[in-house]
């Protein structure tokens, strides 16, 4: 602390820049990227308060005040999309966290390296497959007649008749969650595995000496060891809570499950962009961004509180 | 260290040279090529999804010939995917437009956003061929709400004798086994279907499906066809009464109740495809191609791939043929309707085009009969022959070759549908397209299809008993009317909501358990009545259609 104050008081900003010009040079493209693609587009939010038409231009279009928001909030379809978004992303958040941590814990216990690597590779392969392909795999697997899921369940005598999995709204939420787990668990587990390698092996030895079994070691050493990683990822993910997975839903939905599948992003597409209502779409997107920011701030506060209590 | 520096310098020099060569060399050769032939290149966007697109149509035999004759080459970007509206919407918002554009179902958006060049001045000045191929009445109909002409329509309201028809599609095998019955009424079809599926429950070990339909994504309109088709109405946004000149709009009309109750009964008997509402378009196509779909809802172009597969496998008696099936009591089926001229879309020139005059001259020169023959018939001697009377014809071998997708792609045949063309015949008396020639039309069918035609003593699938005489609504179609932006919220948004409700309830209606149909129907009706003001929509279309009658024919209705 002391040295930092001393340091800044001695050198001016520009001197510092000159001294660290390589670093500045390296960061430059990324700052530019953020400005170009994240800050400048914010300017376009202005069209949420207008009735934007491309040929009139942004300034030529008529101001309508909060009309777009009024339309938005008075549309029952929007609130339905809101409900689905929250439920779907909450389901996905919980299942993907639980699955990734479980997989990482299990892999960490495997001592045969060849087996461990094989499992890891297989489990993260689906991450590299695009949702376009993944969705047709999911739809194919769940098909009533030819799908493998129904065939297996029938062979095991769990069900008597093929189930139309993709035809029921409340199944659809779980299909989204489970297919997301299938696709992303392996990939998400990597970061926890990395966190586990940084746990001091002596802790395990100490735990053994204290008479801990395998499960107890996981409970008292591994889990606390990766706790900071978990909480950080959780905070980061809360910011995405209103992103329920646009591509996945778009590709998997069908008319039967429309009431459960309409999320904010598809709502913006269906009732905004494809109907040429750019302003309406922007208003919906803006609302989503603002709620997301609030969620992150809230999650951060909670995490601070929790951290404070654990420190003391 | 010095050596290291030298090596890196050498590497750098090599890189720079490579980059310079890489970026400049091809441009130079392109320029040289263009200069020698004086071929201008225009960029174009096409949203035509009815044909498999060609990566570079102007590199094919036909394309090269056309480029040579017109002095223009098109660099075409094709629409891929399912949702034209999204693509066009984003294209307009970005302002990044090509020289020429064809927007298909979304073409109106280019007009409404005022990015197109009006053509009527050019037609007057340079439209030598246009004035011959399009009559004054045609051009009148092509005038948009703002009084300008933006495109020359390709759709010209002919009934093509080679069209595979429209209606409810029925498998040839069932017709054969029932001794070629004359089918017209739903009530006669259902018992036949029931018996057939009972008698032949499996085909090649797979279950036979009584009735299927396409429901995926933008193709959902197919499952809306029963509501209009079975009741003898036209598949349009509104129904127009020619006596009172008023439009009526009712997304939960009585005809719908009857149609889906009929399908619901099939469902409860296990005759309707259990996967109908969860299957993709591809899955549906596969089932038809496996020859196990006895009847299906779909439009003619949806079947092409599946029928080709069946034909290739020698299972052409599993192909489906269309019948204009209606409920008993309905006088006329209206699955096939004609438009005198398509007023919705065509190739347009955008304001981004730096040389609209050349672009228009290109479109005009496509109407030159020599080029029309190239576009639709192909290359003389190779794709068609001419007899001593000057009549163009094709041999059976040529017809078969023209059906082969590989040959089509290499020759460039069958990719020119969206461009302006003559109606039915060229000035020399030859048909514009080979498909319009009745002789060629008959020759192109598979043996089983020919057998069907012979059995019913018909020449085509667009005449009785397959279809009633096609009509031409004088006022055109309501779905071709562009809703102006300021009416978007009152007309287009409710229409979309109605469509979403249909998407939700049609499956529920069809799948309703025994005795529950009315309950679902009442829910649907209540929701439609609550969410949609049908009168506003009907009034809008009444006004628009009356305006058309006035603009097109001078008939004023009060």
UniProtKB/TrEMBL annotation, chain A:
Keywords recorded for this protein, A-Z: Cell membrane, Membrane, Transmembrane, Transmembrane helix, Transport
Domain ABC transmembrane type-1: 82-299
Transmembrane annotation, as ranges: 23-46, 86-110, 122-143, 163-182, 220-242, 278-299
The UniProt record lists the keyword Lipid metabolism: no
InterPro entries assigned to the protein according to its UniProt record, in alphabetical order: MetI-like, MetI-like_sf, UgpAE/MalFG_permease
Membrane topology, as annotated: Multi-pass membrane protein
Chief location of this protein within or outside the cell: membrane
Pfam families: BPD_transp_1 (PF00528)
UniProt cross-references to SUPFAM superfamilies, sorted A to Z: MetI-like
Cellular compartment(s): Cell membrane
Protein family membership: Belongs to the binding-protein-dependent transport system permease family.
Listed name of the protein: ABC transporter permease subunit
TrEMBL record, chain B:
InterPro entries, per database record: Bact_solute-bd_prot1, SBP
Domain of life per record: Bacteria
Pfam families in alphabetical order: SBP_bac_8
PANTHER family (alphabetical): ARABINOSE-BINDING PROTEIN-RELATED, DIACETYLCHITOBIOSE BINDING PROTEIN DASA
Protein name (Swiss-Prot/TrEMBL): ABC transporter substrate-binding protein
Biological source species: Caldicellulosiruptor morganii
Classification of source organism: Bacteria, Bacillati, Bacillota, Bacillota incertae sedis, Caldicellulosiruptorales
């Amino acid at each position: 602390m002391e040295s930092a104050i001393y340091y800044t008081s001695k050198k001016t900003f520009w001197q510092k820049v000159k001294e660290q010009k390589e670093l500045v040079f390296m960061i430059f493209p990324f700052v530019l990227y953020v400005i170009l693609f994240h800050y400048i587009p914010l300017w376009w939010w202005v069209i949420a308060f207008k009735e934007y038409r491309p040929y009139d231009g942004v300034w030529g279009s008529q101001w309508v005040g909060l009309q777009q928001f009024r339309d938005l909030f008075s549309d029952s379809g929007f609130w339905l999309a809101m409900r689905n978004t929250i439920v779907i992303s909450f389901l996905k958040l919980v299942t993907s966290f639980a699955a990734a941590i479980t997989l990482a814990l299990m892999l960490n216990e495997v001592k045969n390296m060849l087996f461990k690597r094989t499992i890891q590779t297989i489990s993260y392969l689906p991450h590299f497959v695009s949702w376009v392909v993944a969705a047709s795999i999911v739809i194919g697997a769940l098909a009533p007649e030819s799908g493998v899921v129904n065939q297996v369940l029938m062979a095991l005598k769990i069900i008597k008749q093929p189930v139309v999995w993709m035809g029921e709204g409340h199944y659809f939420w779980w299909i989204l969650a489970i297919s997301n787990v299938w696709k992303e668990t392996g990939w998400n587990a990597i970061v926890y595995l990395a966190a586990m390698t940084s746990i001091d092996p002596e802790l395990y030895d100490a735990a053994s000496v204290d008479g801990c079994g395998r499960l107890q070691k996981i409970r008292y050493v591994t889990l606390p060891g990766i706790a900071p990683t978990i909480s950080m990822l959780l905070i980061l993910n809360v910011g995405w809570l209103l992103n329920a997975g646009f591509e996945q839903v778009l590709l998997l939905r069908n008319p039967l499950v429309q009431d459960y599948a309409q999320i904010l992003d598809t709502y913006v597409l269906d009732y905004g962009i494809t109907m040429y209502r750019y302003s309406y779409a922007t208003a919906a997107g803006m609302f989503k961004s603002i709620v997301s920011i609030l969620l992150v701030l809230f999650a951060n506060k909670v995490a601070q509180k929790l951290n404070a209590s654990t420190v003391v | 260290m010095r050596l290291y520096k030298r090596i890196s310098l050498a590497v750098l020099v090599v890189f720079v040279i490579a980059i310079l060569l890489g970026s400049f060399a091809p441009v130079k050769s392109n320029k040289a090529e263009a200069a020698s032939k004086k071929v201008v290149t225009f960029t174009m966007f096409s949203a035509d999804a009815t044909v498999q697109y060609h990566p570079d149509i102007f590199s094919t035999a036909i394309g090269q010939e056309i480029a040579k004759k017109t002095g223009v080459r098109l660099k075409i970007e094709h629409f891929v995917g399912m949702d034209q509206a999204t693509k066009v919407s984003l294209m307009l918002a970005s302002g990044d437009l090509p020289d020429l554009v064809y927007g298909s179902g979304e073409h109106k958006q280019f007009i409404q956003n005022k990015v197109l060049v009006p053509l009527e001045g050019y037609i007057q000045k340079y439209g030598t061929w246009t004035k011959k191929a399009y009559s004054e009445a045609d051009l009148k109909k092509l005038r948009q709400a703002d009084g300008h002409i933006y495109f020359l329509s390709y759709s010209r309201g002919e009934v093509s004798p080679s069209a595979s028809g429209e209606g409810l599609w029925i498998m040839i095998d069932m017709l054969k086994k029932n001794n070629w019955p004359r089918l017209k009424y739903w009530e006669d079809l259902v018992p036949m279907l029931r018996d057939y599926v009972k008698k032949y429950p499996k085909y090649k070990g797979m279950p036979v499906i009584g009735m299927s339909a396409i429901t995926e994504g933008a193709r959902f309109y197919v499952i809306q066809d029963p509501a209009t088709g079975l009741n003898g109405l036209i598949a349009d946004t509104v129904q127009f009464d020619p006596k009172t000149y008023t439009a009526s709009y009712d997304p939960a009309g009585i005809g719908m109740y009857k149609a889906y109750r009929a399908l619901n009964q099939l469902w409860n008997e296990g005759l309707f495809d259990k996967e109908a509402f969860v299957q993709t378009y591809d899955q549906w196509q596969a089932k038809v191609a496996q020859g196990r779909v006895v009847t299906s809802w779909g439009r003619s172009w949806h079947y092409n791939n599946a029928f080709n597969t069946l034909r290739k496998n020698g299972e052409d008696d599993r192909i489906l043929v269309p019948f204009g099936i209606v409920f008993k009591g309905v006088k006329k089926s209206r699955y096939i309707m004609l438009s005198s001229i398509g007023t919705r879309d065509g190739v347009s020139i955008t304001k981004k085009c730096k040389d609209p005059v050349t672009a228009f001259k290109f479109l005009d020169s496509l109407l030159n009969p020599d080029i029309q023959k190239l576009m639709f018939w192909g290359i003389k001697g190779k794709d068609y022959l001419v007899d001593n009377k000057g009549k163009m014809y094709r041999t059976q071998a040529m017809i078969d070759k023209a059906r082969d997708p590989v040959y089509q792609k290499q020759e460039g045949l069958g990719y020119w549908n969206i461009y302006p063309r003559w109606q039915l015949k060229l000035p020399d008396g030859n048909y514009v397209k080979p498909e319009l020639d009745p002789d060629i039309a008959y020759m192109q069918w598979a043996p089983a299809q020919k057998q069907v035609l012979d059995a019913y003593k018909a020449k085509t699938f667009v005449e009785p008993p397959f279809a009633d005489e096609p009509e031409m609504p004088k006022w055109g179609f309501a779905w071709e009317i562009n809703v102006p932006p300021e009416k978007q919220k009152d007309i287009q948004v409710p229409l979309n909501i109605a469509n979403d409700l249909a998407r939700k309830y049609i499956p529920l209606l069809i799948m309703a358990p025994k005795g529950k149909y009315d309950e679902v129907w009442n829910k649907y009706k209540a929701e439609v009545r609550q969410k949609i003001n049908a009168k506003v929509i009907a009034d809008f279309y009444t006004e628009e259609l009356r305006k058309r009658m006035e603009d097109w024919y001078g008939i004023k209705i009060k």
